[in-house]
Amino acid sequence: MPHTTLFVDIKDRIAWVTINRPDKLNALNAQCKAELKEVFTNLRTNSEVDAVIITGAGEKAFIAGTDISELTSLNAESGKQFSENGQAVFDLIQHLGKPVIAAVNGYALGGGCELALACHIRIASENAKFGQPEVNLGIIPGYGGTQRLTRVVGIGKAMELTLTGNTIDAQEALRIGLVNKVVPLVELLPTSEAMAKTILSKGQLAIRMTIKAMNASMELPLSEGLKLEAALFGEACSTEDAKEGVRAFLEKRKPLFKGK
Ligand code: COA
What we know:
The protein is α/β, with parallel strands linked by helices. It folds into 2 domains: 6-200, 2-enoyl-CoA Hydratase, Chain A, domain 1; 204-250, Lyase 2-enoyl-coa Hydratase, Chain  A, domain 2, CATH 1.10.12. The protein is 48% helix and 17% strand. It has a 6-stranded mixed sheet with strand order 1-2-3-5-7-10, with helices on both faces. It has a 4-stranded mixed sheet with strand order 4-6-8-9. It starts with 5 loop residues before the first strand and ends in a 10-residue tail after the last helix. The structure holds coenzyme A.
């Protein structure tokens, strides 16, 4: 089925997913969430893809939030479903099993900030702006913002952002650890691609196990997380990539990882 709200381009093991509603600042409507769900479900098993970069069309917005026009008819029950549906899509991104980089090219508000938070790495252009302005509408973040923002920047800053609804610029987002890097807009996609390529140059089994362990750190008590880490470390040691990586270091050459 052709997509109407986003496009996907696969090149050199990287899938570029671009939300494409620039006239609405790439606001996430139901169609867009359905397309994201379908796309990420397929990317999970696509053997030609080992990393994903997600961005927004145009130079003004990454995603300016959920589409506010779809909020008008929500009640207690449908509102809960609305939140659960969005959360499920963003969970799919966080647990894709492959690295996902958000290339934030402008407004990342509400659901846009939450989508970036579900990604593993966030790179922002200098004009990017972040915020959870839901309180301005009398609602609260519903796609994971109250949970992931806290885990990424800490409860103090997360409280401030969600309670005031204030927007912060890219430098402030960098300062509080919300983004990994800030670059001029023209360098945003090349920088994101370079980061993806650095990750792609490693053993992909190790990358996937690292994501699994790091994701678990957000959910498990330390003692359980350490058990998982030890189990995955053992699994990693049994791979051909581990043998090759260690051998290559000792032989003073670059490793040739095969993802096995
Ligand atoms: N949902 C639906 N439409 C949105 C939207 C959203 N979250 N954000 C922007 N748009 C639409 C605007 O309605 C406008 O559409 P129109 O031209 O048909 O009237 C278009 O995108 C451009 O937005 P506009 O507000 O004119 O741009 P701006 O530069 O003046 O302001 C923002 C930019 C981001 C400050 C402003 O659009 C805004 O506050 N958006 C809502 C952000 C938000 O609250 N997100 C969380 C939702 S839970």
